[in-house]
Amino acid sequence: MATAKCNVSFQIHYTSSISTTGATALCKYRIKGSTGSYFQYPISPVPASGGLVTLSGVQTSGEYEYIVELTAGGVTAKQTGVFVVGECKARTCEIPLINKIQVQENGQIVMDYVVNTTNLYTPEYQIATGVDFKNIIHLKVGFDFDPLEFINMNDGNIPDDTFLYIRARKHCSPSGVSDWSNTVGFRSGKWVVVKETYTFADAYCVSGKFKDPTNSEEVGASICWSARDLLMKKINLTTSVPQVMVSYIYLSDGVTRAIPGNLKSFDEDGGTDTGFDLKGIRWVRFGSHNPSTIYDVDPSTGLLIGVSPFKCNS
Predict the structure, then answer these.
(1) What is the mean pLDDT of residues 135-145?
(2) Given 75, 243, 255, 258, which residue has the most CB atoms within 10 angstroms?
(3) pLDDT of amino acid 1
(4) At 72, which helix (H) or strand (E)?
(5) In terms of Cα–Cα distance, which of 163, 179, 170, 172 is closest to 50?
(6) How far apart are CA 151 and CA 90, in angstroms?
(7) In which band, very low, low, confident or very high, does the pLDDT at 11 lie, cut at 50, 70 and 90?
(8) Looking at residue 269, what is its pLDDT?
(9) Among candidate residues 7, 6, 9, 5, the one with its CA nearest the CA of residue 178
């Protein structure tokens, strides 16, 4: 269990050979070793296995013993354990919540999750072949939180068409690690690796952090300026010329999609073009092809989705 202010949160795991419709659950707890009555907390509604339960109003610090009872069809199962409550007013490491997992048409796995950013050091997630997480095939730790996490599909560890499980937790600053989040199962697709792309060494990019790519006061430089080392990036496209709703942007390796989570090198270039790894590419202009045209980009996929109303003087 993990404490959060004066609340205690934990997950409930169970399997049942009978329907759990109409099931009831109860948590009883008291100071460990005491002979007093148990505090009783009805768990309603009964969550699905792996769901999060929160006990509110635990005011006294100390070590507690607890009993969780789940009753279905006249049969009761019990689980016992111990949790520790520290100072209720202290900041704690709260458990993340995974909302859903989406597998896109190209096989890209996207995790939609929530992490409380108070005293956040870094999130962490793991992907395994079993719900017990004994065979972990992919993990990531030491990165900035974004509600949509695009899983790195290029390391070769994630198999195609396989039922997998994912979970997340929070590392707190200056210390502490939360319990694991709810576990979500999903079936992987087939990762489509683009093997043939076309290099553009003079692509001027602005991230989704900004509102107007031509506003030098906002961006620090205009996307229309032909100045090296300001907004110019070396990228690859899946087409020999930019094409709306056809061309996808890749990094210069020709394999890695230019989407949030893969663009840290764009931010590390310095200058004023920040926000790429978190927000993605929102606009792009090509100095060697229709240089007055600015293209709108879907930051989450790297697809050129239209010709922008923002233009450069030819």
Answers:
(1) 91
(2) 258
(3) 45
(4) strand 62-72
(5) 179
(6) 33
(7) confident
(8) 67
(9) 9
| Average pLDDT rounded to a whole number, residues 283-308 | 93
Average the pLDDT over 221-240 and give the result.
86
Under CATH, domain 2-85 is a member of which superfamily? Answer: Immunoglobulins (2.60.40.10)
Q: Matching CATH topology for 2-85 and 97-187?
A: yes
DSSP class of residue 178 equals: P
Whole-number Cα distances in Å, 257 to 42, 201, 274: 48, 16, 18
| Residue percentage of the chain with pLDDT more than 70 | 89
Residue 141: partners with Cβ closer than 8 Å, 6 or more residues away? 122, 123, 124, 171
In this prediction, residue 5 carries a pLDDT of: 47
Least confident piece of the model among 2-11, 145-154, 259-268: 2-11
Separation in Å, CA 72 to CA 54, 80, 166: 21, 18, 28
Neighbours of 158 (CB within 10 A): 19
CB 127 within 8 A of CB 166: yes
What are the two backbone dihedrals, phi and then psi, of residue 309, each rounded to the nearest 5 degrees? -65, -20
Contact residues for 10 (Cβ-Cβ < 8 A; gap 6+): 1, 2, 52, 53, 83, 179
Structure tokens at 293: 């045209």
Strand, coil or helix: what is 191? coil
In the chain, where the domains are located: 2-85, 97-187, 198-311
Residue type for 221, please? A
